[in-house]
Design goal:
The protein has 17 helices and eight strands. The chain is of the alpha+beta class and about 425 residues long. The protein folds into two domains: about 140 residues, 60s Ribosomal Protein L30, Chain: A; about 250 residues, 2-methylcitrate dehydratase PrpD, CATH 1.10.4100.
């Protein structure tokens, strides 16, 4: 693919748009971002707060620790942290700089300020409105579609801004141009400097939090448990990705580079490839190309599914990582395509029941499916079109997965939410 090709720039821009830093699970951080923005608009500390949130926001915020809050969880803690200590200019790192005094202020604010949560009649869509009130004035900020997409700003009932509610920002690159064969071509031919400019931070940040997750007591310690069972490269690939999630879901205050709005997916698409690259002494250039391919394959799948769903995003990223490993090891396009189909055919039923420590286990299962899919494909063993949801080719299979996650699992999503809030 030539640099002058419009697809080249589209794929590079997609990576730049999706691979951005975030500290903490992105749903609580999105709430904190909305709250910080609303406080700026109000101009004072509020006396009363209302939070309107769609089902998947409630699901994904309920059980995950909000960073820099001394272990607090939930929607109220997320919003309080943004109001007391948030810097909206930092977007998904809105509460990255919280002082010890502010942590105490957050706790006090929660004890003294009435906060009402209003569930919205929308399950899958990412939709948040934070409304703040003082004695005389009010402000409201709505985020919808993706985690930093502000679609409405109000003060005292007057609209100051109104935007568009879409899964991707109106200014973002059209994801419909993503195809697995074109992604492979891009990975093969892209200028290394271009790739390094967007991939390097993902490799540095995500490996750092994985090592933290392995070294210390985080969550359910799924990553370190995997390494106690075995220490071959396959186990290491699963353990590194799981360990990053162990730390992140339990409030670790280290940033990660996300994919498709998710830190877990950003780690899963990257870390297994780094484990294989270390094991087999793969040159840096090949590693960057493999990580780029994995990220784009993950984004391609998530485009059809949507940002939030009952379909576990770790599956998309884990199977994409299997493709990245196949590329890393020098396999041709055909093997990479069948790696993805094999992995999806085996693991597509894992559901998302919110962000919490068990995400690390689901990541390990998804990476295992990706690696098994690769091991099958390189030996010529592949699931056939018509086997369950497998299509006639990889693009039709990705389309089927999108339909499953976006449409087929709507009632699953609603039932999961009912179970969680009972």
């Amino acid at each position: 693919m030539e640099k002058s090709d419009c697809l080249y720039n589209s794929y590079l821009n997609i990576l730049k748009e999706e691979l951005v830093p975030a500290m903490g699970c992105t749903e609580p951080i999105s709430l904190a971002y909305a709250a910080a923005k609303a406080r700026e608009i109000l101009g004072n500390m509020p006396k009363k707060i209302e939070i309107e949130a769609s089902g998947n926001i409630i699901k994904n915020v309920k059980s995950v620790v909000v960073p820099n809050t001394d272990g607090l969880k939930g929607l109220k803690a997320s919003v309080a942290s943004g109001i007391v200590a948030g810097d909206s200019k930092k977007a998904l790192e809105v509460i990255a700089k919280v002082t010890p005094e502010q942590k105490q202020q957050i706790a006090t604010f929660l004890e003294t300020t009435p906060i009402t949560i209003i569930p919205l009649d929308r399950i899958a869509q990412l939709d948040i409105t934070v409304k703040l009130y003082d004695e005389k004035h009010s402000s409201a900020v709505r985020i919808a579609g993706h985690h930093t997409n502000i679609v409405a700003v109000e003060k005292d009932g007057e609209k100051l801004f109104e935007g568009h509610c879409t899964d991707t920002n109106a200014n973002m690159t059209d994801r419909s141009c993503l195809k697995v064969d074109k992604i492979y071509d891009f990975a093969e031919t892209a200028d290394l400097g271009d790739l390094k400019s967007v991939i390097e931070q993902q490799i540095i940040c995500n490996k750092a939090i994985a090592m933290e997750g392995l070294a210390h007591n985080w969550g359910a310690n799924i990553g370190s448990t995997l390494l106690r069972c075995d220490n071959d490269v396959r186990q290491k690939a699963k353990a590194w990705a799981a360990a990053g999630s162990d730390a992140r879901m339990s409030g670790c205050e280290m940033p990660v580079i996300i994919n498709s709005g998710s830190g877990n997916q950003g780690m899963t698409a990257c870390l297994p490839i780094l484990a294989y690259a270390e094991e087999y002494n793969i040159p840096e250039e090949r590693t960057y190309r493999a990580v780029a391919l994995s990220n784009l394959v993950a984004i391609h799948q998530k485009t059809g599914i949507g940002r939030l769903s009952a379909y576990c995003g770790a599956v998309s990223a884990g199977c994409a990582a299997g493709c990245g490993i196949a590329y890393l090891m020098g396999e041709p396009l055909e093997v990479i395509e069948h790696t993805l189909e094999n992995g999806l055919g085996m693991a597509a039923g894992i559901v998302c029941d919110g962000a919490k420590p068990s995400c690390a286990g689901k990541i390990a299962l998804a990476v295992e499916a990706g690696i098994l899919g690769y091991e099958m494909s390189k030996k010529g063993n592949e699931l056939q079109g018509g086997d369950g949801i497998i299509g006639k080719d990889v693009e039709e299979t990705i389309d089927h997965i999108g339909r499953l996650g976006r449409n087929g699992m709507k009632e699953t999503d609603a039932e999961i939410l009912r179970i969680m809030v009972e």
